[in-house]
Each structure stands twice: as structure tokens, then as C-alpha cells.
Write the C-alpha cells for this entry.
Amino acid sequence: MQISLLKVNDIVECKIGCHFKMFHQCSTNLRLKIRLEIAKWLIFKGSGGVWRSWLAYASGGRVVGSSSLLTPTMIQKRRNEKKGFGLINIGLGLTIVILAFVVTQTNALQYLKGKLANGNPDTEVVASNGFYDPAMVGAKVNTTAPKAKAEYRGVTLRNVVTGKMNKGQLLEKTGYVSYFNYARNTPDWVAWELTAKEAKGYLDRKGYDFMPDQRLPKIHQVESYDYTGSGYDRGHMCPAGDMKWDKYALRDCFFMSNICPQTHELNLHSWERLESVCRIWAKKWGSVYIICGPVYKKKVPEYIGREHRVAVPDGFFKVVATLQPGHEKGIAFYYDNSDVRQPMNKAVRTIDEIEKLTKFDFFSELPDDIENRIEAKRDLNSFK
């Protein structure tokens, strides 16, 4: 179902703020789909009574293929609506619903934001058996993958990293793909392609808040407050600066599944500097593939978190490559997760070195001669 986050926000905010015009600007089919999604939430999350009566009425009693949810009063209201008195009844019904939202279900807006529009706005949330299952909401089903804007010889964001993966979950977002590690509650890696046009994105990151990734099992939905008072920053792996080309891409990079504990010094200076340089390279070379993630050297890492245990990395890697035909080149970096300022030229590594460190295989779909060549060099000047 193609309902964008903005439209989902509109319909929920319409009901809270009584701004019905925006809702009615949607097509009849889209209004029905939105109503049905809200009805699903009410069925599984609501508290009965007024809620259930309203949801059955608003969706025409077709939510679960039965009219059993319709009370005699609601049936009479539907009859009245056919006689031309429906608008009054709808107004009264929505007034009750609005009060219920405000008083008893203050988390409804956040639930709908995360559940109905998590990840790609084009994602259709449907259980595999064709029935609505609350456990399936936010799961990876019928997902539109991030675009492979400059796919080269089979390299896509799905296969740019291969090798043995820890127990976890692949997450596909609007502008990047990541693999989330259940044991550490951090991503093992995050990959995206940044084009020259996207590197010039102008959207403002203000107003975007860190949020749990509800595509993950509940016990792994790290919250922003898990970092509060820990002494570590919420360090983006896929940075907001690379996602300013699209509001959904920018929103997605604030999922906590894209975040790792970073020292303030690293996050604010050395790591941020590398992010900025990658945008310069994207503008120069047309596009670059970027892969980054945490490195854990200790068998038992330090943990932070109030409700969820989040492992603190010992360092971070970043792999950058341009695969434009005739200009293929790659370079990698490793930074300690420390408060010491680390110059970029001291952090340079070969991709081969990062592969040994992480046990991952990067760009395995490339022809061997090209892969071997770009992964063996550590010439920073060749990218400038």
C-alpha cells in the first residue's frame, strides 16, 4: 500500500487537530486504505468500546470481513448516513475518537509512524498468510529496495558486503542497507551509494529525532535514552549529511539501528571530517559506494544502555570505492573509538586490511582483477 509517511501523519494529525481538508484531498481509495490501517491498530491495540464501534463504522464493517463489530447504534447511523445525515454522525464520532486519542492513546501517532511507514514509504505491510498479524508489522515484506543508481557489474547494496554474518537482521531503508547484530544491538555494517546530486542535498536535519527501529524484534529496539548519560554520542553510521536529498532517506538515518556509541571527539571531528570528504569525492567522481561499521576487538566489550544493552565498539571502519568504468578505485579507513584526534592520513588502510579486521568480503561481485586492484591500494592522493 503506497501511503507515504507524510500522508499517514496527515490523517492522524487531522483527527487530533480536526483538519479534515487534508484528509479529504486524498483519493477515495487511499482514504479507505488509511482507515483500514488505523482500524487494524485499533483492533489489536485499542481498548474496545467506543474504539471498536468507531472503527467498524469508519471502515464500513469490512475490517475483518464481518459485520459483528457493528452495534445496533452504528447500524442505525449508517442508515442515517445514506439518508444524508452521515456528516453529523461522523463529526460526533470523530470527536469521541479525538478525545480518546488524546486521553487514552497518546502513543498512537508514534505507533502509526513507525509501524505503517517504517523504512521505505512504499512498503506494504501484510502477513505472509494474507491476514493481518501485529507481529508482522514492520517486518521485511514486499520491500522496495534502495535504488542501485549506478549498478556496476552486478554490485548492488544487497551484495556489496558478503561473508559469514552474525545472528541478526538485514534492514533495507530508503537510502541505505544495513545488517543489525542482535547480540550487540548495533549494526555490523551499513552500506549506501552516494551520487554527486545527492551529495548536494539541502534538506535541514533539524526536527528529526532518534527513534527505535520497529522492524526489529522488540527486545532489540534500542531507544535514544539508552545512550543518555553514557558518556557516548549517538554516532550515525550512514550520516544525515549524506541523506539530505530526500525526506524519507533523512528520516531513516535516525533509526537507532543506524547508530553506534561514539566518543564525542571522534563523532564531532575525525569521523565527521571523513563524512564530509566522502561527499566531496561523490561530487568529483559521480558516485561512490560507502560501507562502514563498528569494530569489536575485545571478547567482552563495554556495554551501555538503560533498557537495552548496547555494545561499545573499539573502533570504526569505513570503505569507499568509485566503480565508474575506467576509474575504479578504493580506499579504507580505521579510527579508534577514543578521545584522541586522529588525522585522516594516519587512519588510511587498504580494503584488504579492513577485510581481515572485520572478516567481511567487500565487492565480491566485481571481476577479480578489478577487485584485487582496488582493495590492495591505500593511496589517499588518488581520490583527491
